[in-house]
Amino acid sequence: MTERHQDTPGGPERGRTPGEPAGPAEPGGSVEPDGRDGSAAPDGRDGLRRAWDELVSTARRTVADGLVVGTSGNVSVRVGDTVLVTPTGVPYDRLTHDDITGVALDGRQVLGSLRPTSELPMHLAVYRATGARAVVHTHAPHATAVSLLVTELPLVHYMAAALGGPVHVAPYAAYGTPELAENTLRALAGRTACLLRNHGTIAHGASLDQAYDRTAQLEWMCRVWLLSASVPGLTPALLSPAQLEEAGERLRGYGQQP
Q1: Which residue is catalytic, options 3, 13, 20, 119?
Q2: Which helix H or strand E contains 54, and what residues bound it?
Q3: Is the CA virtual torsion 174, 179, 185, 188 positive or negative?
Q4: What is the model's pTM?
Q5: What is the pLDDT of residue 252?
Q6: Would you call 39 helix, strand, or coil by DSSP?
Q7: To the nearest 5 percent, what fractions of the chain are helix, strand and coil?
Q8: 42 pLDDT higher than 80
């Protein structure tokens, strides 16, 4: 089921729902991203605008790549002590510079007049508990399907090591709740991505690109497991913990080194 807080047709929702922070500006107004509210990012207005552009691009990519339907996921990026987030109920192709939406780490809205995503508690929990600079949450179909079947994604591929180890499934809780945020943090312990039961995925990283790549990798591994497990009479071959650990060691030296 697509969450109503993100797929409402007809543009942005106004007002505040229970559990969401109230914004400092009335609809139609805005708070300028220039630091006058005390939550300035180190590189000021231009840095926030660049980060917002990248956030919007990443959100649109989740739709284009089939990881969400409409605006059913959400994306955030941390710039200094400000977290930019996608607003609730606004199609990503309609977002402009005027729609910049930002909160402090305590959830207080400091930028914009549009209401932030209802999944804000989950995003902020990740930032407060980790060194993450970006978070991507999707309703990727194969990953969501796997979340219904197991408590941990079977070790079908060594790229699980790139996410910190076997991918856990966070127990179900209603969207936007502190309980979901707590379940997510437990499933993310020692990991950079996890599945959310009957819901989707969440991944974090040092950048939006990294968080998105981890999301896409998780969806691919879930698809591989579903495809292999669907062959009648055969059981997928899985990696052992030792094989995964070896892969993790090799991955640490992968790519161009500085």
Answers
A1: 119
A2: helix 44-64
A3: negative
A4: 0.83
A5: 86
A6: coil
A7: 40, 15, 50
A8: no
